[in-house]
Specification:
By secondary structure, the chain is of the alpha/beta class. It has helices at residues 30-36, 46-63, 77-88, 102-114, 131-141, 164-171; strands at residues 69-72, 94-99, 117-122, 145-149, 151-152, 157-158, 174-178, 203-206. Helix 3 (77-88) packs across helix 4 and helix 5 (131-141) runs parallel beside helix 6.
Length: 213
């Protein structure tokens, strides 16, 4: 087999400028691009710990929380979703998913692979799930975790969250909120007394109730 390669296929990477306005990817600030061109550090370098602490401190006001474990997951939004659910849910745990679009279905797929016992409370695409329906499902199913997407980009709908934390606390359940498309932009505000793991682009935060022993 010939080892000749077309030199034209391996030119300098120079992507065209695009205005990216979806939930991700988005355009990076020039300061971010400059930082990304700096020398690399290993993850065990002492300087890396200091930088990570700075990132954690900067993300706390974005979530509106003082949670110690507010961190950036190195990956896409889905990597933070999976990291949160895999850390929070064990095989056999009962999880209620508030499902009103494609990304509610994604939560059920991930949870099924974990081995959770999954129940959904559903709304037709283009609608949201009424809070009284969620309350009834929690009372009937008795979940360990209630998982909900805040804004589902497949339907453009935002699920109201007012009252969800109180329902979870009353039932002794943790709440998990996927705020990939809504954190900051749609007024999402994490409450320190609402146990769970909201997820944004790839950051995650969890209070003490969500920590592993």
């Amino acid at each position: 087999m010939s080892s000749d390669l077309d030199a034209a296929l391996f030119g300098e990477i120079d992507p065209p400028q695009r205005l990216l306005m979806g939930p991700g990817p988005v355009n990076a600030h020039p300061r971010v691009l400059r930082a990304m061109s700096a020398d690399l550090l290993g993850q065990f370098d002492p300087e890396m710990t200091a930088y990570m602490n700075q990132v954690m401190a900067l993300y706390r006001p974005i979530f509106g929380t003082s949670n110690r474990w507010t961190m950036l997951i190195d990956g896409t939004a889905r990597s933070a979703i999976e990291a949160a659910l895999v850390s929070l849910v064990a095989p056999g745990d009962r999880v209620l998913v508030v499902n009103f679009g494609r990304f509610g279905l994604l939560l059920t797929e991930i949870l099924a692979r974990i081995g959770a016992t999954v129940e959904t409370v559903d709304a037709s695409w283009g609608e949201v799930v009424p809070m009284d329906a969620i309350a009834h499902a929690i009372e009937k199913f008795g979940p360990k975790v209630v998982a909900c997407v805040h804004g589902d980009t497949s339907t453009t709908m935002a699920q109201p969250l007012d009252g969800l934390g109180a329902l979870c606390r009353a039932a002794g359940a943790l709440s998990y909120i996927d705020a990939t498309a809504t954190n900051v932009a749609d007024g999402f505000h994490y409450l320190d007394d609402r146990p769970g793991k909201p997820v944004g682009t790839a950051p995650a935060t969890t209070p003490q109730e969500g920590e592993l022993p």
